[in-house]
Amino acid sequence: MLIDRAVIEVRAGKGGNGAISFRHEKYVEFGGPDGGNGGEGGSVILVASNQCSTLFGYRHGKALMAEDGGKGDKKLMHGKNGKDYIGEVPPGTAVYEESSGSLIADLKNPGDKAVVARGGKGGKGNAMFKSSRNRVPRIAENGEPGECRRLILEMKMLSDVGIVGLPSAGKSTLLNLISNAGAKTGDYPFTTLVPNLGVVGYEDGSSLVFGDMPGLVEGASTGKGLGLTFLRHIERTRVLVHLVSMEEGHDPYEDYLNIRKELECYGADLEKRPEIVVASKMDEDGAEERKKEFEEKLGKKVIGLSSYTREGVDEILAKARELAAITPSFALKGSKEEEGGLKVYDAHNKEEAFVITHPKSDLFVISGEEILRKYASINMSTEEGVARLLGYLHRLGIEKALVAKGIKEGDTVQIGDFQFTYTE
Question: Which domain holds residue 230?
Fold first, then answer.
């Protein structure tokens, strides 16, 4: 069974907490803090592997979870780092963030890998807080939480040339003629329920991968028929071979326009790829007249194809190689091209340090990715921890921001699950 799309949840490991500990040894003249740091949380990593051909293993939306980091201990003992979770996906898998639809990683070639959820940093033990002004620190950091989010995995086949057209236009038949793909054929819609690939070798030793992309009907770009299932596989192709049937009862020009419309509506610039227009089933009665009329409406030359006589096969292959040699790769749908190439997700890209909301007349809530991450790392079980949080808020300019929001003495300020009363 071809499973080429899956939705998964990834959960990186939490960093281990730092330890609060002091040396108590009989023959050591001076003691002091010796709490060790917590270990790093494990990350979730996806890697493209030839051992994996579909996304079958992810079909039930399983959660991929890395290990938490171990807590620090006395005698400056560092906590154990959490083990990474490494998941294998087929080469050609694109990884999208479900909430935004943006492309995170394109694992195109075997061995390509991406960290899709980064583990939390381990917290510092109290030995790290010793200074000339604080020789007996009674504070340690908690480990940072690991990332948790939902992703969409989409397998997009690695073909150089995509064969498109309405059902029963002869796409699978053409693929079988030019390669050893062995695709099923039949004179009825949706004979092909999975995309097929075939490698075509040329006399000079070069080769191209052709892909049969079935399932395109009017409305395919909105999910009708099998369209969305296969449109994603065209994204990697650099050249399109567009088959238009010359059978009686068809309007070739209307059929052609319908497929072009679906390619454009899908996005990913599918309609911008170089196109070889082929009039298939030229052995049918009246095919020559319909081809001539089609060419006149289209305004350009169309290659005639007969699967029985192999008419047009060599011309199609030659044109495909010519266009593929001069056509660069196209960006995948959802990718953001910027200077320097594809923008890859960065877990620590932050826009604002904090945001203040005022849900009630006497309550002010401080939120924001950066400030909540910092709060989670502070051990609030000690007075020093509370003082450290308040000092951090002061350095960020929280007090000025609260005053600008209209806070009054006696109002409550909340950050995470911690609340305190504001005093001037």
Answer: 161-331
